[in-house]
Amino acid sequence: MGLGNPGPEYADTRHNAGFRLADRLAERWGFGPFRRGERARETAGTVGGTAVKVLKPQTYMNRSGAAVAPLRALPEFDPSRHLLILVDEVALPLGKFRLRGAGSAGGHNGLKSVEGALQRQDYARLRIGVGPKPPEMDDLADYVLAEFTPDERDTLQSLLDPMADAVECWLAEGIERAMTKFNK
Hints:
The protein is an alpha+beta fold and about 180 residues long. The protein has helices at about 15-30, 65-70, 80, 110-120, 140-145, 150-175, 175-180; strands at about 35, 40-45, 50-55, 85-90, 95-100, 125-130.
């Protein structure tokens, strides 16, 4: 599930890095267009014999957990094995990403919402570096809701396929193997 904010005014913002990766995955895997689902836009298909659903919550970042709440009702759903959250991260420099198998929200409101809905922290996440807030900016929200510069957009674009490789490794081999292979 890629985290972000719905609407064209947020499409190219740092907070929508998770949506950008979700779009790239759907394109790479040849899934159909995103369609309206329960509190999310979704598309689905099969990757390497595994059924996969890609979600983009339509609840705004701070309420992203509402999109995972319906998954809890599925008897076979285990967040520690079946959920990977794609999310922007200001603590990582632009051009870097990190996989984690569990942990705290680290101050990220989207992850806090997911944790609130799941009532647990043991789900995988791929944190996409968007760089730290510049000192001249007072508000972190202003920074993450600002659009990427053209150079930043190019840097993120060049990272989409390596991140998609990491997601495919997670699907095929699990979070531990993906972390070993891609967290450098």
